[in-house]
Amino acid sequence: MGRPTPELPLLALLLLLPQALRGAPCPEPCRCPPDGALSCPGPRTNLSRLSLTYLPIKVIPSQAFRGLDEVVKIEISQSDSLEKIEANAFDNLLNLSEILIQNTKNLVYIEPGAFTNLPRLKYLSICNTGIRKLPDVTKIFSSEINFILEICDNLHITTIPGNAFQGMNNESITLLWQDRDEAINKFKCP
C-alpha cells in the first residue's frame, strides 16, 4: 500500500477550477444566461428563499420573480456582472419580507418602481453597489411596522433627495445610512 501522492489532490482541484470560474449554478427555478437577463418564473411551491450569488447576469428585468408567491427572502450578492435592476423587478411579491442586494459593485442603476407593492417587506438592504442615486422606495407599500431600509457602502450616493420616502405607509421607518466617512447614521421616521 503506497501513500497517496500529492499530485492527486492538485489534479482534482485543477479539474474543478473551470467550473468555479464560471460562477455559481443558477438556482431552480431561475434561468441565468451569461451576460443576459435573469428569469425566475413561478409558481413554485416550497420555495421560501432564493439566493442568487456569483451569477453572470447583467439585468434583473421587470417581472423577473413573477409567480414566486411563497418566497420570503431574496438575496442577490457577489455578482460582478449585474448592472441594472428594471422597474417592477420586485413587483407584487405578497409574502416577500427581505431583499438583500449586496456586493454588486457594477450595479449602477435601479429603475424607479423596481420595488412595488410589497406589503410584508420588513428589510431592504442595498449595500456595496455602484448606484449613483437613492433608489425609489416610495411604492413599496409595506404594512409592516418598523420597516428597515439599509443603505451602506454605496460611495456614489451623496445626497438623499427631498420626499425620498413620501408615500411609504409605515408607522415607523428606520434608515441605516453609511456615508463616505464610514459613519453609520440611524434615522427614525415616525
UniProtKB/TrEMBL annotation:
The keyword Signal applies. One of its GO terms (molecular function) is luteinizing hormone receptor activity. Residues 1-23 form the signal peptide. The keyword Oxidoreductase does not apply. Pfam families: LRR_5. InterPro entries: Dev_Immune_Receptor (IPR050328), LRR_5 (IPR026906), LRR_dom_sf (IPR032675), LSH_rcpt (IPR002273). Keywords: Leucine-rich repeat, Signal. GO terms for cellular component: extracellular matrix; extracellular space; membrane. Transmembrane segments: none annotated. SUPFAM superfamilies: L domain-like (SSF52058). PANTHER family: FISH-LIPS, ISOFORM E, SLIT RELATED LEUCINE-RICH REPEAT NEURONAL PROTEIN. This is Luteinizing hormone/choriogonadotropin receptor. It comes from Equus asinus.
